[in-house]
Amino acid sequence: MNEVLHPVSSWGRLSREGHRLVALHDRHHVAKAVRDSALPGIAFGNGRSYGDVCLNPGGTLWTARGLDKFIAFDAEAGIIECEAGVLLKEIIDVTLPRGWFPPVVPGTQFVTVGGAIANDVHGKAHHVAGSFGDHVLDLELLRTDGSAMHCSTYENRDWFEATVGGLGLTGIITRARLRLRRVDGPWLDAQTIPFDSLERFFELSAEAKRSFEYTVSWIDCVSGGGGRGVFFQGNHAARRDHPMARRVKTFPLTPPVSLVNGLSLRVFNRLYYALQTAKTGRAEQHYVPFFFPLDNLLEWNRMYGPRGFYQYQSVVPPAVALEATRTMLREISAARLGSFLAVLKTFGDRPAPGMLSFPMPGTTLALDFPNGVERTLKLFGRLNAIVREAGGRLYSAKDACMPRDLFERGYPRLAEFLPYRDPGLSSAMSRRLLGS
Ligand SMILES: Cc1cc2nc3c(=O)[nH]c(=O)nc-3n(C[C@H](O)[C@H](O)[C@H](O)COP(=O)(O)OP(=O)(O)OC[C@H]3O[C@@H](n4cnc5c(N)ncnc54)[C@H](O)[C@@H]3O)c2cc1C
Q1: What is the DSSP letter of 122?
Q2: Burial class of residue 401 in the structure, from the number of CB atoms within 10 Å of its CB (0-12 exposed, 13-18 middle, 19+ buried)
Q3: To pair with 125 at 20 to 30 A between CA atoms, which of 60, 250, 292, 361?
Q4: What's the gap in Å between 240 CA and the centre of ligand 1?
Q5: What is the full DSSP assignment across 162-208?
Q6: In the beta sheet, which residues pair with residue 179?
Q7: How many Å apart are CA 140 and CA 120, to the nearest integer?
């Protein structure tokens, strides 16, 4: 057993506390690795969660990236089976040239299959495709007592529903079988539409959901509750050619202080709105900038400086979405806080596959905020009150400071979930929100 503690951060870089790292390499040896580890522990995928859901300071982290093998690919049916540490990028690289693509992808392709299941991640297609768990045919779950089980919607269905979106707390996912969707090639027929009010955003969302598989919008968070922004919609295009791979850049250093401040925000938002407005209309767009615009600048999270940043992502129900979103944007603007990329999106009505899945019918708003600014936590208190009053919830994958009562109220199936927890698993988040 490795007793040395290694500093580990999640994507928000809010902490760098020591962890006992146990690398998993082969799905057949996970049970032994877990048996030999000090408990409690938690699985760590690729650390793309922003807060503490994948951290266990002072305790064991089973790093799952080494579970990186493909097991089977049925190129007729579009079904892929792989170990849980395989990245969505690796799946796309293998399956896209053969005409298949994951039906649900989050805003980065650098997430593992295990991490995507444990947070039941969503993408721009929620209104047609639901969330990631809707396309998991089955998975293998290893408990810390050494037992393993197959879970799907027809076998151990209760365990499946607890594990999809289960924050890594029901066991270690070792492998999964995923359903893909047919595509002709790597291009999207995309459309950019600027809007100047939140009312217009809701009209565009309602129109787009009938004819576009993917929708999302950027909102200018410094313009107050007015709601100026840019709506993006798209469908897979029939074009088949594959362009030359583009060179990816890396954010070069960690600046001593956050580069995100009132001035840089105002300048960026004005420029970004002008740039996107100039692109109004249709264009064929490659899937990387369409789905994963931030993946072209690796380690962009360093721009917030050594103290890191929070992401705040909420969803509020349709009946109150307009007013609640407007009030939240006003609060953010009045606090002179916000982020370059503020994302607004409407979820569809499809019931979520997991007991603790985040998506629910309504509108989701996501913004980044620098850590170390006193106003940030005060602002979160006001935003929490709006979300609570609206009957909404916060996204655990992005969270580092949600109050316990908001978690309990936001996730009505929590009591149903608790019996499925593995007593050998614990994270900083589970201790914060569940007491153990
Ligand atoms: C730029 C960016 C954009 C994003 N956009 C979106 C988005 O659009 N939609 C969205 O839903 N999310 C989004 N996210 C969040 C991200 O998709 C999730 O946090 C995802 O779960 C991260 O996966 P990971 O492999 O890095 O897992 P980690 O962050 O390392 O872990 C996440 C959870 O999975 C558990 N876990 C990991 N591996 C296993 C395993 N083998 N067995 C059991 N549990 C496991 C961990 O314990 C933890 O609870 C974004 C993140 C970034 C950085």
Answers
A1: -
A2: middle
A3: 250
A4: 30
A5: HHTTSTT-S-EEEEEEEE-EE-SSSEEEEEEEEESSHHHHHHHHHHH
A6: 79
A7: 16
Strand, helix or coil at 368? strand
Structure tokens, 117: 């299941």
Ligand 1 pocket residue status of 122, Cβ below 6 Å: yes
Give me the mean pLDDT over the 179-195 stretch: 97
- The residue to mutate among 87, 105, 119, having the most atoms of ligand 1 within 8 angstroms of its beta carbon, is 119
| Structure token digits, residue 203 | 């009209």
What would you report as the CA-atom Rg of the chain, rounded to the nearest whole angstrom? Answer: 21
Give the residue with greater pLDDT, 268 vs 165. 165
Residue 134's alpha-carbon distances to 26, 121, 178, 241, 354, in angstroms, are: 26, 10, 9, 30, 9
Task: Give the pTM.
Answer: 0.97
Note the pLDDT of residue 32. 96
Residue 47, Ramachandran bin (φ over 0: left; ψ between -120 and 50: alpha; else beta): left
- Specify which residues 407 forms β-bridges with: none
- Indicate the top mutation candidate among 34, 37, 121 to test ligand 1's pocket, ranked by most ligand atoms within 8 A of CB: 121
Count other C-beta atoms under 10 Å from residue 331's C-beta. 19
- Is the C-beta atom of 108 inside 6 A of ligand 1? yes
Q: What is the pLDDT of residues 304-356, one digit of tens each?
A: 989 999 999 999 999 999 999 999 999 998 888 888 889 999 999 999 999 99
The H or E element that residue 33 is part of is: helix 30-35
Among 120, 102, 171, CA closest to 425: 171
